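Hey everyone, long-time lurker, first post.

I ran two proteins through the pipeline my lab uses and got sequence/structure pairs for each. Pasting them in order. The first:
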Amino acid sequence: MTTSGTGDNASAETLCPGQDDGAPTSRDARIGRPLALSPEDRRMALVRAAGQVFRRDGFSGATMQKIAAEAGMSKRTLYRIFPDKRAAFEALLGVQQHGTPLSPYGYRPGDDPRAELQRSLFSLTRYILSPKRITLTRLVIADSQQHPELSESFHRLEVAALIAQSTERFKRLRADGAILTDQAVDLSRLMIGAIIGFRQVAAMSTHPTPEQDPDDLAARVAQVIEIFAPALGLSPR
């Protein structure tokens, strides 16, 4: 098995022969090694380790050896789960598909639509501006010229997923009569862009990446909602 640009070109079977992360041995028990992980726990441990390596070393500087070492597992185990570092990177991006950065939908007839818009846009933009996501965005921009496949993976698993979630939320608000517009999709994108705008640029150019001030971000979300209120069909305050 080969990997693109990783320098880890040995087959999985020849990596650390005889070494595995399976059932614990009597020696494991003597030295206090934790019991063997379930397949899903093992995979998630490798995803977390990959995230640490990618954020620290970038995609170009990451290797399968580093990821395995970060996880405290053998390369043989890593290759059984992820054939190359792009697969590990896509798994890191795909973790969000098991949940959503959006707050739970809470609008009910008679509620103030601004409250649901505030919750939804705040949770989504706070996720986009979080240090971990900013670091991954910076990584993709820095390494995409050498590894163009990164851009495709990032757009498919990160950007497209966020667009789909925000679009679904605005369409649901429209269906429930909370907002009155035929441009729900366009407005959701414009509002998110107006909120993150300079904050994303500033965060990406600052090391270490700062946490966003939640009160400042919430105030910006409220400001953007009022700017777009006429287009959303909201009654004036």
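...and the second, right after it:
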Amino acid sequence: MMKKVKKLLCALLIVLTAVTMLSGPFQVPVQAARTVTANKNANKAVNIKKRGTYRVLSKTKMNKDDYIRFTAPKKGKYTLTFSDFRKLKGYTPSERHLGSVYIYKNTKYGRSMQRVKTNGGKSSVLNMCSKAWYNTYTKGRKIKAASDLHTRYAKISLKKGETIYIKSFWTGGKHSYSLKIK
């Protein structure tokens, strides 16, 4: 009986060792989010030109807008996911702040706010909130286009080389957020 248990344990050990050795080459490295700093002047804003995940830093004062740009590398439909809005310094998870994100495109009439498909419908204003605000006031309710959300997506079609301007506003002043472009 004891010999059978030992044989089973040895066989299990060999299988686990083989799985560990074989899985190493198949692991996908995790790519850290690139950090970009937003600018209060849309024309001088950092221009993102690749899909990926970005940590956006806003160093503008409270109740001021800031911008980043995204230029489409090729024609297609892009999904931008905004999440994890928070103050840069002194952040506590219990803070309740609100903000919004707007997407603009240059048109023959000037820069125009875009109506995009988002959580709960279509909207030109993407209302954002801190995790604490979401948990207290929004969680469990029906999501509408105007709901305050901690994570929100926007879908937009772009031509190759077309640029959108992403404007953010946050009641907590200097802040950061995560932006994933797919």
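Reply from user beta_strand_b:
Welcome! Quick read of the second one: The longest helix spans residues 2-23. Residues 26-30 have pLDDT under 50 and may be disordered.
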